Amino acid sequence: MAFRQALVIKMFNINDSVVYNTIGVCKIVDIRTEKFRSAEEQEYYVLKPFFDSNSITYVSTTDEELVAKIRPILTRDEINSLIQGMPEEESIWISDDRERDREYSVKLHSGDCHELVKLIKTLYLEKDRKKGTGKRLNATDTKIMTTAEKLLYDEFAIVLGIKPAEVVSFIQAHIPGAAPGLETGQSHLELQPTASMG
């Protein structure tokens, strides 16, 4: 019996600007065949983050689970709509540490900007509450908030043609009333030069 070869449907093209998982906003600089370690030769999207020129990520074009984590970047209209809705976003604070870590990690990896806004707003409110009692966010919550800020603000910056450090000011100038969680400056992760697969 003859086996029919699976068709590979390319969802993206070279030079497309996309968001990938928690890597963030990237440009697809190439689509090429590579053979890594003991893996079979495969076709890959080659992603280069806009704000980390030393990093390269390879995503197999045939791995549906990984490709599903790539999405087109927002449009300017989508960003404006997101900003307009920020004041209505509700806190999603979860008291149980383990459950919160698990749920927030899922939201962080979802690639959904609405979820990132909720995370930033929720954790900022909790940070502000703790500050009033002389406490701080724990390390995990702080890392999640910092990562969510970077993912959101980097994407906004690319679409709006501004610097990431200017995003908060842009939001403040266009939001209908300052939204808690967006008055502080931008946080940045210290990124090390890397090359990763998927």
Briefly say what this structure is.
The protein is of the alpha+beta class. 38% of the residues lie in helices and 17% in strands. The chain has helices at 64-67, 76-85, 97-109, 113-131, 139-160, 167-174; strands at 17-20, 24-34, 42-49, 56-60, 70-72, 195-197.
Describe this structure as you would to a colleague:
This protein is α+β, with helices and mostly antiparallel strands and 198 residues long. It is 38% helix and 17% strand. It contains six helices and six strands; from the N terminus they run ββββαβαααααβ. It has helices spanning 64-67, 76-85, 97-109, 113-131, 139-160, 167-174, and strands at residues 17-20, 24-34, 42-49, 56-60, 70-72, 195-197. Strands 5-1-2-3-4-6 form a six-stranded mixed sheet. A hairpin with a 7-residue loop joins strand 2 (24-34) and strand 3. The protein is globular. Residues 1-8 and 183-197 have low confidence and may be disordered.
SS field, number of helical segments: 6
In sequence order, what are the helices and strands, one letter per element? EEEEHEHHHHHE
Number of strands: 6
Q: Assembly state here? A: single chain
Q: Note the gap between the termini.
A: 34 Å
Low-confidence stretches: 1-8, 183-197
Helix/strand structural class? alpha+beta
Mean pLDDT: 86
Portion in beta strands: 15-25%
Q: Cα-atom Rg, whole angstroms?
A: 19 Å
Q: What level of helicity do the residues show?
A: 25-40%
What is the 3D shape?
globular
The biggest sheet, with number of strands, parallel, antiparallel or mixed sense and barrel status, is: 6 strands, mixed
Sheet with most strands: strand arrangement: 5-1-2-3-4-6
